[in-house]
Write a structure and sequence with these properties.
CATH architecture of the largest domain: 3-Layer(aba) Sandwich
Helix content: 25-40%
Bound molecules: nicotinamide-adenine-dinucleotide
Oligomer: single chain
Shape: globular
Number of helices: 15
Number of strands: 20
Strand order of the largest sheet: 14-15-16-13-12-17-18
CATH class of the largest domain: Alpha Beta
Number of domains: 2
Structural class: alpha/beta
Length: 497
């Protein structure tokens, strides 16, 4: 986006004031039509900042899902055979529309998920960039010609794998669905996506951009439903050729097992419990400020959120003092209000989880340095929290907190810190702070994780892959690797007669 475009987006944002609390009608998009489905059953969508119901989301029946699958089957044939230049032009048009609509999409996202409006709007326009990146990269999904040992012409081609069944969560209501839709459509696949029933308005707004850009009927289908019922039905269908999921490790294991039983490939973007190692030569104030900014963004509900702070004993007190100051400076409130730095948690489950994790840590001997309590107001607000002296046995040190809690422990030896960092089954993100290139390289080699940042807490980027080691999943999103899972290789041996 150019600075002029950014300025125009800002104007629109001012127009989307906190007074506007209207929420769109939620429907599914199946076979080229917006529909309520045939079940007649809905679940409410709740504003986590107020606890009020915003609207209702319809739940699909298995018959509705069969219509979506048949449409995706037909849509795949149409889209696969659409010339790549035409596909790319449509996807770029969808990206343009999303940027144009980012103020409104962000407003809907804040209403249903809670994150501050600038974060929500930033997410909406950023994911348009991801769509453009994949759309352009798909033009380079080259095959190759191999010198043959005989009279054959031997070649390798990459082709789209087929209709995709995708499942996305509520923490990045635009980012998660877009990563799957962008990769699938860029590769030439069709998709049936079940976005989160807790943040359906953003998913509908994204899909509308593709519809308005001219994506043919059946290529992109959006459904909602009972998650276990929908995933079982979509994964079992012979139409589905690839399963793509973002969410928790336990659900990922269930879906990967279901896909395995059908011999279907799957891509799993699962949880993490990212360590941050602060080496003795680091600047503790700088490290604490960077870590705090990353910790409290999206109220800590990020799979790559820094969540175990391993600080060299010599810097521990200086680091903790700055982290506590930063936590106490975070302005918590309704994300639609000006100046808010952290919104509510996205649902009541996270609020109960925060109370349980803090209570358990304190019972185990941790010191509560700041925060630690739900905020006494409607909605699901929790204080930015710092814990120190947290024993390894505390649940917060092993269980992904997915909330605004920063547990700090001190260490004396880098190998010991790396051993703690790698001790969990997770392996998604890891962070290191040091002024020494040798120490940085020890960290890079030592961390068992797929997303590493040194001297900052970097977010995901379009041009490089993100993904996990160990229980954090497999497959990559973003970068050239992001298309790999959506493509399949054909070897062609052509005997010239
Ligand atoms: P959850 O495990 O119940 O659900 C996680 C996501 O999976 C939700 O979007 C849910 O709708 C979906 N889901 C659940 N069961 C499903 C099924 N059988 N088939 C298909 N989809 C299914 O947990 P939750 O309370 O929504 O979130 C809490 C935990 O999930 C967090 O602690 C975090 O570990 C994890 N999570 C991870 C990410 C991520 O980006 N990796 C995102 C959201 C949540």
């Amino acid at each position: 986006m150019t600075s002029a475009e950014a300025a125009r987006t800002d104007d629109r944002v001012d127009a989307a004031t906190d007074a506007d609390r209207s929420y769109p009608r939620i429907q599914m998009y199946v076979a080229g039509e917006w529909t309520d489905g045939s079940r007649g059953k809905t679940v409410p969508v709740v504003n986590p900042a107020t606890g009020e119901t915003l609207g209702d989301v319809p739940l699909a029946t298995t018959d509705d899902l069969d219509v979506a699958l048949a449409a995706a089957d037909e849509g795949f044939r149409v889209w696969r055979d659409t010339p790549i230049a035409q596909r790319t032009a449509i996807l770029h048009r969808a990206a343009d529309l999303l940027v144009e609509r980012s103020a409104e999409v962000g407003r809907i996202m804040t209403l249903e998920q809670g994150k501050p409006l600038p974060e929500a709007r930033g997410e909406a326009s950023r994911v348009a960039g991801g769509l453009r990146w994949h759309a352009d990269d798909a033009r380079r999904a080259y095959g190759r010609i191999i010198p043959s040992a005989d009279d054959t012409v031997l070649s390798v081609r990459t082709v789209p794998v087929g209709p995709v069944a995708a499942f996305t969560p509520w923490n990045f209501p635009a980012g998660s669905p877009m990563r799957k839709i962008a990769a699938a459509l860029s590769a030439g696949c069709s998709i049936v996506i079940k976005a989160s029933e807790e943040t359906p308005g953003t998913a509908c707004a994204l899909v509308q951009c593709f519809v308005d850009a001219g994506v043919p009927a059946g290529v992109l289908n959006l459904v909602f439903g009972e998650p276990a019922e929908v995933s079982a039905h979509l994964i079992d269908s012979p139409v589905t050729r690839l399963v793509a999921f973002t969410g928790s490790v336990p659900v990922g294991k269930l879906l990967a097992a279901a896909a395995g039983a059908q011999m279907k490939p799957c891509l799993m973007e699962l949880g993490g419990h990212a360590p941050v190692i602060v080496a003795p030569d680091a600047d503790p104030v700088y490290a604490a400020r960077k870590a705090a900014a990353a910790k409290f963004v999206n109220a800590g509900q990020v799979c790559t959120s820094p969540s175990r702070f391993l600080v060299h004993a010599s810097l521990h007190d200086a680091f903790v003092d700055e982290l506590v100051t930063a936590a106490e400076q975070v302005v918590v409130g309704d994300g639609l209000e000006d100046g808010v730095g952290m919104g509510p948690l996205a649902n009541g489950r996270r609020l109960s989880a925060m109370e349980r994790l803090v209570g358990d840590a304190v019972d185990a001997g941790a010191t509560l340095r700041t925060g630690g309590h739900r905020i006494d107001r409607p909605g699901y607000f929790f204080e930015p929290t710092v814990l120190t002296d947290v024993p390894a046995s505390a649940a917060v040190m092993t269980e992904e907190p997915f909330g605004p809690i920063a547990p700090v422990v001190s260490y004396t030896d880098l190998d010991e810190a790396l051993a703690i960092a790698n001790a969990l089954p997770y392996g998604l993100a890891a962070y290191g702070f040091t002024r020494s290139s040798a120490t940085a390289e020890r960290m890079v080699r030592g961390f068992e994780a797929g997303i590493l940042s040194i001297n900052h807490c970097g977010g995901s980027v379009h041009e490089a892959p993100s993904g996990g080691f160990k229980d954090s999943g497999f497959g990559r999103e973003g970068g050239p690797e992001g298309l790999d899972g959506y493509l399949v290789t054909k070897r062609v041996s052509h005997l010239l007669v």
